[in-house]
Amino acid sequence: MSALPSDLEIARAARIRPIEEIAAAAGINPDALEQYGRYKGKIDPTRLDAPPPAGKVVLVSAMSPTPAGEGKSTTTVGLADSLARAGHKVMIALREPSLGPVLGMKGGATGGGYSQVLPMDEINLHFTGDFHAITSANNALMALVDNHIYQGNTLNIDPRRMTFKRVLDMNDRALREIVIGLGGPSQGVPRQDGFDITVASEIMAVFCLATDITDLRERLGRITFGYTYDRTPVTVADLGVQGALTLLLKEAIKPNLVQTIAGTPALVHGGPFANIAHGCNSLIATQTARRLADIVVTEAGFGADLGAEKFMDIKARIGGLAPSAVVVVATVRALKMQGGVAKARLTHPDLAALEAGVVNLQRHIHNVEKFGVTPVVAINRFSSDSAEELDWLLAWCAAEGVPAAVADVWGRGGGGDGGDELAALVAGAVAGPNSFRHLYSLGLSVEDKIRTIVQEIYGADGVDFSVPALKRLADIERNGWSSLPVCMAKTQYSFTDDASRLGAPKGFTIHVRDLLPKTGAGFIVALTGAVMTMPGLPAVPAALRMDVDADGNPVGLT
Question: Which of 11, 68, 80, 274 is catalytic?
Fold first, then answer.
């Protein structure tokens, strides 16, 4: 039996069409397309000859992720290709990959097998330079802040109360906590500082939630980067540099157009993580796709407890949109791992472990229902899945009253029939009634919003606020920020804030150690447990297997 080709080998063997052909098929007029080479382009939404957003949104989420892999992006691409195959006018809206995870442990984020967006190597690496622009804007702000302090500090900024950090699109634990300004008076004012990963930057969140370039400028101006000595918030507008930051982002804010192996158009734009940020692609890209397609298939990061909840309560609220269907991706492998099976034994059939682990999927399904949307379960098939296990899981979904289908889009995607059954279920859900609602009202206090999320979505008994978090709650109330939604920063691996507790735990408390007001993005980040805003690299980074051949072609990308 010959070995299956790798994702990279499949991508390189695929026939990729010139981007102007993809644009034309999608209804994008030539004036709105800006080409970045032969196979990538940016769309200027202001030049589109297209109606206001009206396309239906299908949100793809998942059960809690495990090292076994769930294939959410693969399912997203395969579902969109299958909907297009069925005759629907479809467009995909995905996030851009971050270099940190690509070179670290997670790998790329362009799907897999025959359900990929292309060119996968360029998307996974520097793409069109959007992350560089966001990193530059973030670090320009901090250079301007430190220069202001050095040049006399007329805003009375307290260097000890800075809430904004420099960023880098890399996992680099050595930069989490640093001291800057050393070396004498001409080198600046010494202070403690640090780096976050670019995807955790508030400028990334602003970028992804802005409705247009004017809104982008206004949101940048509202960013609070620190406090004065008398504890008054200081914003980018106070410093007067929101125009310069907008200038750095004026090209990046245009959505990126690429294609799937099957030729389905895809907008890949923006990339906040869902465990430390709000986890959704740019609102501009989603709304642009809704102008061009009848169905827009998008995804939110990690499990439905993180990305999907934030899509519903942050992105959908700001954008005035509602998902018409929510797909929850599950795998037999991951469910068995949730049931206590070690990764090395996941290829062995084990109905008992599957039954023990399905409680994790059950909680995610019930959580989606709390938003008034009926979920559809996509069982992403792996070659090691037994027929008995797949049949058991389908029967369980039927007993739960949840539509479900096995999707074999890794091996039978790219325009094949591996996602046809799933596409039919999703199309039916899109055509059905919708009673979408948010989980909480913005009129609740920040404390009550957090309590609602941890009890209703995570299944916790309650929430414990540290002393610093309680002080921050008082600051939020005093500064008039209580009406903002909440963005939970939590481990993706568990409903709890302890990554080792799998399944659907009960009888636990979520520990909030700090609260970070993101006044430009328009939400409050609640830091829980030990979640980091600058990840580290694993013991064996994926970078160790990467290279280029003699012709400059990539090797080892996944």
Answer: 274
